[in-house]
Amino acid sequence: MLLYLFYRPAATASCRLPRMWLLISFWSLLYLDTVWASVTVYSQLPLGQATATAAAANYTGAAAYDPTVLNPPPIPDPAPGTQPFIQLFNSNTSQGGLSIPISGSFYGFSIEMSVANQVLGVNSTFLQVPFLNIMAAFKQRGGSPRIRVGGNTQETAWMVDSIPGGKVLIKSKGNSSNPTQTPALMLSPELLYMMNNISNLVGVKWFLGIPMNDTQNVRLQIGELGESILGPNILGFQVGNEPDLYGRHGVGGRPASYSPEDYFNEFGVMMAAINNDTNMPTKNNIIGPSVSTSQWTMEDVFNTGYIPAYTHNLGAISVEKYPDDNCLAVFGGAGQPKVPQTEFALYLDHTAGVNIVKPFLNASAIALANNKPFYMFETNTASCGGFPGISDSYGAGLWALDYGLQMAYSNFSTALLHVGGQNVYYNPFTPPPTNQTSFHQWTIGPILYSALIVSEALGPTDTAQVVDLNPNNANILTPGYAIYEQGTLARVALFNYVTDPTGAHAYTASLAVGGGSSGQPNGSPQTVKVKYFNATSVSQKFNITWAGQTFGNTFESDGRLQGDLDVKTVSCNNNICQIYMPAPSFALVFFTDTAYTEATPDNPQTFSTTAQTRVKNTATVDAAVLSTSNGHSGSQGRNILGSTSLEHNKATSTYVPSTAALVALAFCAILIGHHNYLE
Ligand SMILES: *[C@@H]1O[C@H](CO)[C@@H](O)[C@H](O)[C@H]1NC(C)=O
Ligand SMILES: *[C@@H]1O[C@H](CO)[C@@H](O)[C@H](O)[C@H]1NC(C)=O
Ligand SMILES: *[C@@H]1O[C@H](CO)[C@@H](O)[C@H](O)[C@H]1NC(C)=O
Ligand SMILES: *[C@@H]1O[C@H](CO)[C@@H](O)[C@H](O)[C@H]1NC(C)=O
Ligand SMILES: *[C@@H]1O[C@H](CO)[C@@H](O)[C@H](O)[C@H]1NC(C)=O
After folding, report:
1. For atom 10 of ligand 4, which residue has the closest CA?
2. Nearest to 314, CA basis, from 335, 336, 283
3. What angle do CA 345, 346, 349 make, to 5 degrees?
4. What pLDDT score does 514 carry?
5. Which sequence spans correspond to the domains of the chain?
6. Is the pLDDT of residue 4 over 60?
7. pTM of this prediction?
8. Which CATH architecture has domain 100-463?
9. Is the C-beta atom of 351 inside 6 A of ligand 5?
10. Ligand 3 atom nearest to 217, measured from its CA
11. 108, 51, 103, 5: which is closest to 400 by C-alpha?
12. CB-ligand 3 contact for 153 (6 Å cutoff)
């Protein structure tokens, strides 16, 4: 989505701002005062205390750290029932209506190609430790994390042998006399070596973008080198990003009339080039069409004969979708910018996820019928950076959980949450601005928790099947899902979207397994384990916890979950397990020991960093040591580097390096000091 911002200005009448302004707005500050004017803000005050409109209104820093806190939507009348009964079945066949098997790596991340050097690392020997820690957490829950490096910036990317200073990429400024020209992105093979080193450490598997701006002069070097350097760590190559916007944005000089048929033909040129390229031996891992669906539907593309024509190349069918946009607030133009307070409620019930997915149910079924997985290749709360107070709130965390499980239920096989730069509100994780890397750490967004929780909900077996339970008389504020693994009930996910600090709108769900009205044998376990995703209000931005643990607040995270694991054990009586759901809350209920243990790392693998040299702005390599993290402890360590001699002293937070740690030390380092990137 990143370069949407660059393309948009000249392409649409509503965006008439000079490029310089855009660069400023994009890479440094956003001034959105008009948006705030009518917004009442709780500025970091607990719910119910005096509101303040001034603080956030005067905020002029980068979007990623915007302090705006909105009001939770009012409690609806009638309110949802507080005693829902949910009948469940032990086996997937009795339950019925389930999805295809889904991987625990379902939720991954989409990293704009041009910001890979901020998020992943500086070069193949200087990786971002917080990023490694985050990925390790995913690997230990759902399996190998899936990351796409691509986006609009892939279209003008070109590979060179090397870049001075050993850099992985640079953006050239482009032609300043032409404000719509996307700055070309120069990549070096070092980017791919860096990605491969990340894979070796934390098992990340990659989707890589191949440029399609110019089918007269096809550039496949990214694919060729990608295959030779990354080998099996490549999941697929995306050819063409949002081609339905090629005409509107003039990508590669294409005319406004650019049609699905034009795309079909050009995609054919790309496939022929790949099929003839002996340096790209894998032919069947191409991802397309990746339309944004703002101009064409998936069916418009399918109607060209796309799938049968390219079935030997297509590894998956992809779409990219943001449910809303904040473009007027960012770029100005005719009309009123959307008001975050008004938009907020649109994210805070079950229909949000259902309605994003609905237009793609047909496409998902068509993909499935053609034996192609269906991917949501780029998504987030809203395009043009998301909304202050929404995209970075606990409410967005609930939204991403519901939306993710809804996509899984609807037979999507992967969904990638987009990561932009400093000037978006929606990042799951944000490295500090480059001039602050010496004293600030990363900022974790609520949707990172959602992605992690979905990987726990689905587990590592690749057999998870998801069903939308529509409990509580299908009340849209209290949705729920059941997840089966190996054909057996493994977990239930419950939501309460209502915010009510009085407790009057908490509910208690009675989960019945087999027995009673099911006509099935009694199947309830004696006890279930419950993990909560917690905050006191949907608008809360700080102190969000998952099973008692947190990544920390703004600028606080080294990518590790901190604090002691807090898991509730609930006794079940007469085959009924009663789960208390505060307003608001999300709970994941584990029905078997396996369902719990496989999603709860005993001995988390983390790459720790030492902090003492951070105050100096020297780019010396800092120590990276492997350690266990706080919380859950046990004997069956599963850290992926295979160390068996890890110790962690909770009282003093001392981390003892192991042999594996010293290996890690050799090529991992915290990013400190100033480094230059992008403009
Ligand atoms: C990688 O980046 C670090 C930090 O900028 C630098 O010290 C190191 O020399 C670089 N390595 C190579 C091989 O360029
Ligand atoms: C990291 O990349 C460099 C090449 O730049 C390579 O020499 C080194 O062996 C790699 N490390 C791992 C663990 O793959
Ligand atoms: C495509 O991008 C490359 C690299 O930025 C550029 O050299 C080339 O001129 C572009 N082609 C078109 C048709 O715009
Ligand atoms: C998902 O696929 C399964 C298996 O083909 C099918 O039974 C189910 O109806 C599909 N789900 C949706 C929501 O279309
Ligand atoms: C987070 O929680 C801690 C401990 O309960 C409290 O001291 C702190 O003020 C909270 N921070 C915010 C921003 O709410």
Report:
1. 99
2. 283
3. 80
4. 80
5. 12-37+617-678, 81-91+467-598, 100-463
6. no
7. 0.84
8. Alpha-Beta Barrel (3.20)
9. no
10. 11
11. 108
12. no
Answer whether 174 contacts ligand 3 (Cβ < 6 A).
no
Closest listed residue to residue 426, CA positions, set 412, 411, 416, 435: 416
| 478 CB within 6 A, ligand 2 | no
Q: Whose CA is nearest to atom 8 of ligand 4?
A: 99
For residue 194, the model assigns a pLDDT of 97
Say if residue 425's pLDDT is above 90.
yes
Whether 197 lines ligand 2, by a CB cut-off of 6 Å, is: yes
Give me ligand 2 centre to Cα 122, in Å: 13
- Fold held by 81-91+467-598: Immunoglobulin-like (2.60.40)
Backbone angles phi, psi at 72, to 5 degrees: -65, 150
Distance of CA 180 from the midpoint of ligand 3 (Å):
13
Average pLDDT, the chain: 81
Write out the DSSP string of 208-256.
EEE--S-SSS---HHHHHHHHHHGGGEEEEEE-SSGGGHHHHTGGG--T
Q: Which two tokens stand for residue 563?
A: 């604090």
Regarding the beta carbon of 166 and ligand 1, being less than 6 Å apart is answered yes
For 475-509, the three-class secondary structure string (H helix, E strand, C coil) is: CCCCCEEEEEECCEEEEEEEEECCCCCCCCCCEEE
Burial group, residue 335, by CB count within 10 angstroms (0-12, 13-18, 19+):
exposed
Q: Is 49 in the pocket of ligand 5 (CB under 6 A)?
A: no
CA of 174 from ligand 5 middle (Å) equals: 46
Ligand having the closest approach to the CA of 195: 2
Q: Which of 465, 229, 420 is nearest to 326 (CA)?
A: 420
pLDDT for 130:
93
Structure-token match 């740690």, residue found: 661
Which residues make Cβ contacts (< 8 Å) with residue 588, sequence separation at least 6? 453, 456, 457, 491, 492, 493, 530, 531, 533
pLDDT tens digit sequence for 576-621: 999 999 999 999 999 999 999 999 998 877 776 533 223 222 222 2
Predicted confidence band of residue 520 (pLDDT cuts 50, 70, 90): low
Per-residue pLDDT tens digits for 448-471:
999 999 999 999 999 999 999 999
Q: Compute CA 416 distance to the chain's CA centroid, rounded to the nearest angstrom.
A: 5
Residue nearest to atom 6 of ligand 1 (CA): 126
Judge if the beta carbon of residue 213 lies within 6 A of ligand 4. Answer: no
Return d(Cα 198, Cα 193) in angstroms, integer.
Answer: 9
Give the atom of ligand 3 at the shortest distance from the alpha carbon of 213: 1
Q: Whose alpha carbon is nearest atom 10 of ligand 1?
A: 123
DSSP 312: T
Q: What is the DSSP letter of 544?
A: -
Does the beta carbon of 162 sit less than 6 angstroms from any atom of ligand 2?
no
**What is the structure's pLDDT at 131?**
95
Pocket test for ligand 4, best of 93, 100, 364 (most atoms within 8 A of CB): 100
The verdict on the CB of residue 543 being under 6 Å from ligand 5 is yes
The answer to whether the CB of 27 falls within 8 A of the CB of 423 is: yes
Per-residue pLDDT tens digits for 358-397: 999 999 999 999 999 999 999 999 999 999 999 999 999 9
176 ligand 5 Cβ < 6 A: no
Task: Check residue 347 and report its DSSP letter.
Answer: G
Ligand 5 center to 543 CA (angstroms): 6
Amino acid at 625: V
Is the C-beta atom of 99 inside 6 A of ligand 4?
yes
At residue 562, does pLDDT exceed 60? yes
